[in-house]
Amino acid sequence: MGYENIGVTIEGATALVEVQRPDKLNALNDATLTDLTDAFLDLSINEDLRCVILTGGAAKKPAFVAGADIAELAEQDPMLAKERSHLGQGLCDIIESMEKPVIGAINGFALGGGLELALACHFRLASSDARMGLPEVTLGIIPGFGGTQRLPRVIGLGPALELITTGRMIDAAEAFRLGLVNHVYEPDALLDEARKLAKTIGRNGPIAIRFALEAALRGRTLSNEDAMAYEANLFGLVSATDDMREGMRAFLDKRKADFQGT
Ligand code: COA
Fold it and tell me: What tens digit of pLDDT does each residue of 244-257 get?
């Protein structure tokens, strides 16, 4: 499918999604949000894929996504703002509930909606020159694509509230210290490291990966007792798969498992 503001490249079992608005540091206008929503819905039903990498395409300055498009935000009335929030939240929910891991490769500015997009990814890798923050309050608004909820879950309430209320931009080293990003790499190495991680994950049982994501993410909204029951049910269900038999047999045969996703 052709998109106006993003590129989607299939590299074996990995899809690379790049936001491409080079003149605007990959800022998310409504058309880009719609492109991303369509792309992730499409990728979610592609059973040949084991992992997705989301990153920013080459821009004037290194950028993952420099936020929602401020030119569009400047014109919004309350109803349009609410719709736009639903559009951004909906995209982030689709990413988070993907049944294959989504790796956010943060290759420059990840601000506002850009950081919120990265927070919806299952994990985040950053280039050493990346800059992250939620500067919405400096514009007189609040984060509206899930940032007020996901940032506290990832780094804890105190540090998250500080970043949200100051609008302060942090560098990759601080983001790593806060647990906001899993790893930091030199800019030239970032994408290859993301691809390596995707390959490592791709060698594991895809149904097991899917259930592990589901147990961890769904479990957050349940009581501890219900979350444990949910995990036990998925643990039971995964034991019905060919992949479980293959994984166990491969170990006993002292060879690498060849998972088929069945
Ligand atoms: N929305 C719309 N346009 C944006 C944008 C955004 N979020 N972020 C950057 N741009 C545009 C700039 O307007 C500029 O366009 P122009 O060349 O047509 O004037 C271009 O991208 C380059 O940005 P510029 O500000 O000149 O680069 P810089 O290196 O001086 O600063 C940033 C980089 C990221 C610090 C700065 O662009 C910025 O603060 N952006 C907004 C970040 C933000 O508040 N995001 C949250 C929105 S809710």
Answer: 999 999 999 999 99
User: Which domain covers residue 173, as residue numbers?
Assistant: 6-202
CA of 167 to the centre of ligand 1 (A): 15
Of 20, 24, 109, best ligand 1 pocket probe by most atoms within 8 Å of the beta carbon: 24
Task: Clarify whether residues 143 and 246 are in a common domain.
Answer: no
Annotated active-site residue in 4, 136, 162, 214: 136
Q: Domain for residue 238, yes or no?
A: yes
Catalytic annotation present for 96: no
Query: Is residue 122 in some structural domain?
Result: yes
Residue 2: pLDDT band (50, 70, 90) is confident
Same-domain pairing of 11 and 62: yes
Q: Is 142 in the pocket of ligand 1 (CB under 6 A)?
A: no
Residue 81, CA distances (Å) to 37, 58, 73, 200 in order: 18, 29, 8, 40
Question: Above 90 in pLDDT, residue 198?
Answer: yes
Considering its fold, how many domains does the chain have in total?
2
Q: Is the CB of 53 under 6 A from ligand 1?
A: no
Identify whether the C-beta of residue 193 lies closer than 8 Å to the C-beta of residue 185: yes
**In this structure, are 47 and 138 located in the same domain?**
yes
Is there a domain that residue 262 lies in? no
* Mean pLDDT, rounded, for 24-47: 97
Whether 248 and 177 map to the same domain: the answer is: no
CA 27 – ligand 1 centroid, Å: 8
> Is 231 labeled as catalytic in the residue annotation?
no
CB 60 near ligand 1, within 6 Å: yes
71 CB near ligand 1 (under 6 Å): yes
Do 193 and 210 fall into the same domain?
no
Do 231 and 219 form a contact (C-beta atoms < 8 A)?
yes
* CA–CA dist 246, 234 (Å, integer): 18
Q: Residue 26: which residues within 8 A CB-CB, separation 6 or more?
A: 19, 20, 32, 56, 57, 59, 63, 64, 65, 66, 114
Q: Does the Cβ of 115 fall within 6 Å of ligand 1?
A: no
